[in-house]
Amino acid sequence: MTWVVGLTGGIGSGKSAVADLFAAQGIAVVDTDAIAHELTAPGGAAMPAIRAGFGDGVVAADGALDRAAMRAIVFTDPAAKKRLEAILHPLIRTESERRIAAASSPYVILMVPLLVESGSYRERVNRIAVVDCREATQVARVMSRNGLPRAEVERILAAQATRAERLAAADDVIDNDGDIAALPPRVGHLHGDYLALARQFG
To answer: Could you write out the three-class secondary structure of 123-172?
Structure first.
């Protein structure tokens, strides 16, 4: 049985940077966001069901999901969000489990942006690591990175778990509010802990 660490954090917290540092240690990273992108790319396995459920208006000319069109729908219609999740989540779960089973590293990082919100991931991981920073830092990073207006970023944040909720679910907290140079030693320390835990309980 593979020992799995669930890695999460709010938008702009630096999850990808942390995941890259674990990958640099030779640890397999299974990224549910990347899987979702594959499923909704041209020819992706989720696209026939999405087209059937939402119509051609959410399908781009190349056959991929039109993310902006879908975002506009699910942000204003909770029922539509649930319909989309009912299509994507089982496919993401199946593929992530396949990748975890195929991994050869001592443990696996399962990166799930909405791990705290989804609930069902808690029983799939042995430990939860949360990448944490202040909300103001998240907003500034996402505005800079994605070119989104502040109101749009704040709306995305409001749809996610609060910082307090994520911290309450965390077994380990990775502070990423300051100097990026502080991250590698923090991740290196956790990597050592996870190797020991995987040997003990894996």
So the answer is: HHCCEEEEEECCHHHHHHHHHHHHCCCHHHHHHHHHHCCCHHHHHHHCCE
Q: How many residues does the chain have?
A: 202
Regarding whether 83 and 61 lie in a shared domain, the answer is yes
How many CA atoms lie less than 13 Å away from 79 in the CB half-sphere?
A: 2
Token pair in block for residue 46:
């989720």
- In whole angstroms, give the CA distance from residue 181 to residue 175: 12
How far is Cα 158 from Cα 162, in angstroms, rounded to an integer? Answer: 8
Question: Helix, strand, or coil here: 105?
Answer: coil
What integer pLDDT is reported at residue 202 of this predicted model? 66
Is 88 found in the same domain as 38? yes
Q: How does pLDDT run across 154-166, given as a tens digit for each residue?
A: 988 988 899 999 9
- C-beta pairs of 19-23 under 8 Å, 24+ apart in sequence: 19/109, 19/111, 21/183, 21/184, 21/187, 21/188, 22/109, 22/187, 22/191, 23/109
Residues 161, 190: one domain?
yes
pTM of this structure: 0.90
